[in-house]
Amino acid sequence: MSRKQQLLKRHRRNKRIGLLIALVLLVAIGVLVAWWLPLVLAVLGWIAHEAWFADHLFYSPKDDYAYSFPPYTPQPRVHLDGERLRLDDGVMLVDDATLILALRIKSTWLGRFFDPAVELSGGEHPDWQTFERGANGLRYLNLSGQAQVLSRGELRLRGRFCRVFGEPILWAFEQPDFRRQRVMVIAPHADDAELAAYGLYSQADEAWIVTLTAGEIEAQHYQQMGLSEPEAARLKGRLRAWDSIAVPRWAGVPEDHCVQLGYFCLQLAAMQAAPSRPVGSREAQMDDTRLFRQLNPFALPGDADGAPTWNNLLADLRELLMRARPEVIVLPHPTLDPHPDHLCAQQAVLEALRGLEWQPTTLLGYANHLHDNDRWPMGDTGHGIALPPAFDSAVSMHPYCLPVPLPLQRDKAMALGMMHDLQPRMPFKRRLRRLMQWLLASRVPPTYGENEFFRKAVRRQELFWLLKPGEPSGPQN
């Protein structure tokens, strides 16, 4: 059982215990006070839960985040002068450096019901960075893109439903412009490349998009059209295979640089456990990947028999790595992103690279899912991305932040809108919860689409982590 599954199991157990206690109290109130009062209290309690207490947060908001950055990372001296963040005299910043500021956040009492945020103002690009309700501890703001404003002494930090205090610490990470190198994005599913790295790959001098699975399962939306489960899964897989090939063209990626490997969703771990054994689809009643690979621009080793095996996956990846010779590989982070297909995708790439003639110079990790906080990045569409919750400082982390200007954010949103998996309406309960949170907790719905990923992914930055080949990296949340 993965750590996220363990956390969910504990969360659901605690929730059942809480509901049982609430039921006992309501029955007692009905007996001792008035029969109708428990009904009113139950409705009000449900509304309060949906508006303020429905987040999946598997840690205390009073916990300090704990990061360790590489030794010798420059730490320009800064201090807070009221709301103004000032550099010490003589300190210079590189414009495109990734700037991370550690400081303490303490929510006000309203910050337990409204999302506490820090407003960054003073320049042409004001920003908001949001944290957990009730946050009270060390947090890490992302000041990337604010170097000039900070150098001029004009950057202001103002808490909304929170107070900012303590002695701030600034880190300045300098790295090459990876957009000027050959980039290959590894996407476990169609849309992962766009969610994590559309801003990077759309600006790269040369980009490849390699999608590992067809993402065919959970096709209830297509079953509503009268299709059986296998028929719906096959249709969904074909549509998402098309998405993985066609949508990168919106960003200018050549058609012959977009590849769909067609393996089956949530089956990569089973393939890895028995590398030569074919593992068929859970729902599509298929054990041949070639239906989902028909749009590829060239043949790959796995096309010979279409067998969904780990060995075929490795052979496909080795062929693509030697053909593309990427200098930068963008892939799921090995510890921040707990999705089983994402973990296996990262491990497959590292295994395929082992002993290969061509080796990339850089691995960049991304996280489209988190263990402990299902709202991260917190805040609204277009806002900045603060560092995610992390509580193990034993492992060094190296962030890399890429700015995504507003026109590119809009293009990214349109790319996500073309993805069939992000198009269906949310279930009624989620739509009702979002409405209540909008009215009662001031959470603004995503601007560009209904799916939650339009809020999470369309931001003023994309956040990556430099990884060392072959080594797990990052805190175990």
Spatial extent as radius of gyration: 24 Å
Q: How many DSSP helices?
A: 12
Strand order of the largest sheet: 12-11-10-13-14-17-16
Q: How would you spell out the order of helices and strands?
A: HHEEEEEEEHEEEHEHHEHHEHEEEHHHE
Measure the end-to-end span. Answer: 15 Å
What helical percentage do the residues reach? 25-40%
The stretches of 5 or more residues where confidence is low (pLDDT under 50) are 471-477
Structural class: alpha/beta
User: How many beta-strand elements?
Assistant: 17
Work out the strand percent.
15-25%
Give the overall pLDDT as a whole number: 92
From the spread of the alpha carbons, the general shape counts as globular
Largest sheet: 7 strands, mixed
Structural notes for this entry:
The protein has twelve helices and 17 strands. The protein has 477 residues and is α/β, with parallel strands linked by helices. The strands form five sheets. Strands 12-11-10-13-14-17-16 form a seven-stranded mixed beta sheet, with helices on both faces. A three-stranded antiparallel beta sheet has the order 7-4-9, with no helix packed on it. The protein has a three-stranded antiparallel beta sheet with strand order 6-5-8, with no helix packed on it. The model is unreliable at 471-477 (pLDDT under 50).
Entry summary:
The chain is α/β, with parallel strands linked by helices.
